[in-house]
Design goal:
The chain is an all-beta fold. The protein has no helices and eleven strands. It is globular.
């Protein structure tokens, strides 16, 4: 099994930046792609971004392109989400996800490992 623990969420103002981290533990050797999803109040969970095992391929949702950057440090078993120019619409619980089948995907259900989530609130 793989455990994912997010950190770095908080309350910020519009235009601010925030960096989320996700530490993986357990059978980390099995992890391939990793990513971030989010769920805003009253909305469905949605894909935000994902990164391949070697970090050479990434996907981003249109809503965050140019503002968010995903990266990973495999030696530290950690994936990061740098969020710049935050908007109130980015307010959500952010979930770290991972998969072991080598599929870099935008489909949230392709990720079999999920963290508990970290709250990000952006005030206007």
């Amino acid at each position: 099994q793989v455990q994912l623990v997010e950190s770095g969420g908080g309350l910020v103002q519009a235009g601010d930046s925030l960096r989320l981290s996700c530490l993986a533990s357990g059978r980390t050797f099995s992890i391939s792609a990793m990513g971030w999803l989010r769920q805003a109040p009253g909305k469905e969970r949605e894909f935000v971004t994902a990164i391949s095992r070697r970090g050479d391929s990434t996907y981003y949702a249109d809503s965050v392109k140019g503002r968010f950057t995903i990266s990973r440090d495999n030696a530290k078993n950690t994936v990061y989400l740098q969020m710049n120019s935050l908007e109130p619409e980015d307010t959500a619980v952010y979930y770290c996800v991972a998969e072991s089948k080598g599929r870099l995907s935008t489909v949230i259900y392709d990720y079999e490992y999920w963290g508990q989530g970290t709250q990000v609130t952006v005030s206007s």
